[in-house]
């Protein structure tokens, strides 16, 4: 019977440590059952779960590892593992796994402690914690500070609704976004990302900006607010608002495009995803003339929105064709995924309003961005403390990968 031991090596990192200690184990034909390593500020923590085939070699392995650690100024701790304990650990590998991401301008111990406490309350075990954002200089602060860490946890939450509620409370109280979702085979295999447009890709509601030019801005804004909060039917509200745009000209539409404010991080997130091979779509209850402008500017593959009816270059106050509402967005997401030969689990949907909930709820990863309360409450993932590029961290991308993907693009 093999002796199972857990070896922990800590201290100042330097090149060749793994080769050195693995070489010692190799001399005794030791089998590695598990291995993990992290380095923080030039200090290493290396763990090896090993099986020593010959019992008589245990003391020799112990002595050689301790001596090498002493020579290198490292602490080496070796503990025997009871076979039953090892088997219990093996059988636990089938447990459900989830990814929890904390995202904000900065992350404090208070926020990490709060999230960790919720995990403990829900009987979830934290297996690893990874920093996704780059190292932060204290002497040269970032102009757009970003901080993100990712927890990998195992186990089944006792009360997932309560867990989501606690995360929302922590978000409000401490100023960070906390998102969590099941870790499955689709986590790193998503290929289609669709965005709402108004108040998501751009900072304004175009229909309100257009209405300001007819003098009906406040009226349209109030109807829009009610629709985005789910208080009135979107299609009916849209017809009411478009009717108030009657008389606008092509020059008015062109003026809107010239002053269109992109959301912070929109150019970065689209450029990164395009370079990584993702297909991108706009599914909007806004207007096609804005969507086509963004397709040209940011490189979208699909654009679905509403078309303003015009006669002789003047807006009639009517909509051409079927209105794109929440259910239509969900149907379009399914249709695009099918056309791209993708499972719906390989999709990501991002939006801010109640009419985005249908597509957010069916996507593999649904994200509420600067969303209304009704949307934040129902979406598992949310971004409200950073720009739209925060999506890249929720997807599990490291800042290094983001920098590499946009190298040479000028962003």
Short précis:
With 411 residues, this protein is of the alpha/beta class.
Percent strand equals 25-35%
* CATH superfamily membership of the largest domain: HAD superfamily/HAD-like
Q: Radius of gyration over alpha carbons?
A: 27 Å
Model regions low in confidence, pLDDT < 50 over at least 5 residues: none
Helix tally?
16
The count of strands amounts to: 15
Total separate domains: 3
Distance between the termini: 59 Å
Strand ordering within the main sheet: 12-11-10-9-13-14-15
Shape: elongated
The CATH topology of the largest domain corresponds to Rossmann fold
Instruction: Provide the CATH top-level class of the largest domain.
Output: Alpha Beta
Class inferred from helices and paired strands: alpha/beta
Helical amount: 25-40%
Query: What can be said about the biggest beta sheet?
Result: 7 strands, mixed
CATH architecture annotation of the largest domain: 3-Layer(aba) Sandwich
């Amino acid at each position: 019977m093999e002796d199972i031991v857990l070896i922990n090596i800590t201290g100042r990192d330097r090149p060749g440590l793994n080769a050195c200690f693995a070489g010692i184990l190799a001399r005794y034909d030791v089998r590695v059952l598990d291995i993990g390593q992290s380095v923080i500020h030039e200090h290493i923590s290396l763990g090896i779960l090993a099986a020593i085939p010959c019992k008589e070699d245990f003391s020799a392995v112990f002595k050689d590892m301790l001596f090498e650690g002493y020579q290198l100024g490292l602490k080496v701790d070796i503990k025997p593992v009871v076979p039953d304990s090892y088997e219990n650990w093996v059988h636990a590998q089938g447990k459900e796994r989830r990814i929890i991401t904390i995202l904000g301008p900065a992350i404090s111990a208070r926020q990490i402690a709060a999230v960790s406490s919720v995990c403990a309350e829900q009987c979830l075990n934290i297996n690893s914690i990874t920093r996704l954002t780059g190292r932060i200089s204290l002497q040269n602060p970032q102009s757009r500070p970003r901080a993100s860490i990712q927890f990998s946890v195992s186990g089944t939450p006792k009360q997932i609704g309560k867990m989501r509620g606690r995360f929302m409370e922590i978000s409000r109280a401490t100023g960070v976004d906390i998102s969590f979702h099941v870790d499955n085979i689709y986590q790193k295999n998503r290929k289609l990302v669709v965005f709402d447009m108004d108040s998501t890709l751009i900072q304004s509601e175009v229909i309100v900006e257009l209405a300001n030019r007819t003098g009906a801005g406040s009226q349209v804004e109030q109807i829009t607010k009610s629709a985005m909060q789910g208080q009135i039917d979107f299609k009916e509200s849209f017809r009411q608002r478009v009717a108030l745009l009657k008389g606008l000209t092509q020059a008015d539409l062109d003026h809107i495009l010239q002053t269109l404010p992109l959301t912070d991080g929109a150019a970065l997130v689209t450029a990164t995803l395009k370079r990584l091979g993702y297909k991108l779509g706009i599914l909007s209850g806004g207007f096609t003339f804005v969507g086509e402008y963004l397709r040209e500017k940011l490189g979208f593959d699909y654009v679905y929105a509403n078309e303003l009816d015009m006669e002789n270059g003047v807006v009639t106050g009517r909509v051409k064709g079927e209105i794109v509402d929440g259910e239509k967005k969900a149907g379009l997401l399914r249709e695009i995924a099918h056309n791209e030969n993708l499972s719906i689990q390989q999709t990501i949907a991002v939006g801010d309003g109640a009419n985005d909930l249908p597509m957010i709820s069916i996507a593999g990863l649904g994200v509420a961005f600067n969303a209304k309360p009704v949307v934040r409450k129902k979406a598992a993932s949310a971004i409200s403390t950073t720009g739209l590029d925060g999506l890249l961290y929720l997807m599990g991308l490291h800042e290094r990968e983001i920098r590499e993907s946009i190298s040479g693009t000028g962003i």
